[in-house]
Design brief:
Blueprint: H1 13-27, H2 41-51, H3 58-63, H4 83-89, H5 91-104, H6 115-123, H7 129-155, H8 162-180, H9 188-192
Helix pairs in contact: 2-7, 4-5, 5-7, 5-8, 6-7, 7-8
Domain Reverse transcriptase zinc-binding: 31-97
Keywords: Membrane, Nucleotidyltransferase, RNA-directed DNA polymerase, Transferase, Transmembrane, Transmembrane helix
Transmembrane segments: 134-150
């Protein structure tokens, strides 16, 4: 049952979003995480958990006394698998982010070391508000797709490449933009081209 400190309030999505926002305010991260209307709820929740350090990376599991391999990043094997490393600063993740930025034709940042820096970069992009909302949703989706690539390698022994992650992001984001933004004159071919943001 959903309970808040507001008495006997009826359940609503608005109330859940508001409550999540309030808990973020206390953590000083709310201004960076905004619930995306374009992204799916699963991806929004994942991003919220990522920015609050709540995804079960090897480092997070070790804190809970759950042994998971040697604790190193499964995608690069170079550093400990923390949320920020896995989703942002891993060599695999950096390759993915480079491809995403080239595809979206947004500046390629020199360094990202955390999810909060990534979302701050997105928030400060100099593009129109509509495009910024789409880029933000794509950034959330990219983090989710990197997470899926990590899980595929661990549980299914499936190797992903940065290109395959990019292709998954392009296809999923296309359907999000068409269905959730109600843009009907957009083809997957145009969306997957070199200037996705130019077609919206």
């Amino acid at each position: 049952m959903w309970k808040t400190g507001r008495g006997n309030a009826d359940f609503s999505v608005r109330l859940v979003r508001s409550t999540m926002g309030e808990s973020f305010n206390s953590a000083n991260s709310t201004d960076l995480f905004v619930w995306s209307k374009i992204a799916t709820p699963k991806v929004n929740c994942f991003a919220w958990r990522a920015i609050s350090g709540g995804i079960p990376t090897a480092a997070a599991l070790a804190v809970r006394n759950v042994c998971f391999g040697d604790g190193m990043c499964i995608l690069c094997g170079i550093e400990a698998e923390t949320t920020d490393h896995l989703l942002v600063s891993c060599t695999f993740a950096k390759s993915v982010w480079w491809l995403i930025c080239v595809w979206l034709q947004v500046p390629i940042p020199e360094t990202f070391v955390s999810v909060t820096q990534l979302l701050s970069f997105c928030k400060n992009l100099h593009v129109g508000e509509r495009r910024k909302r789409v880029v933000y949703a794509i950034f959330l989706l990219t983090m989710w797709t990197i997470w899926i690539a990590r899980n595929d390698k661990i549980f299914n022994k499936k190797l992903s490449t940065a290109i395959s992650v990019l292709d998954q992001v392009k296809e999923s984001s296309y359907w999000w933009v068409v269905k959730r933004s109600r843009i009907s004159n957009l083809s997957l071919e145009n969306w997957s081209g070199d200037a996705a943001l130019e077609v919206i």
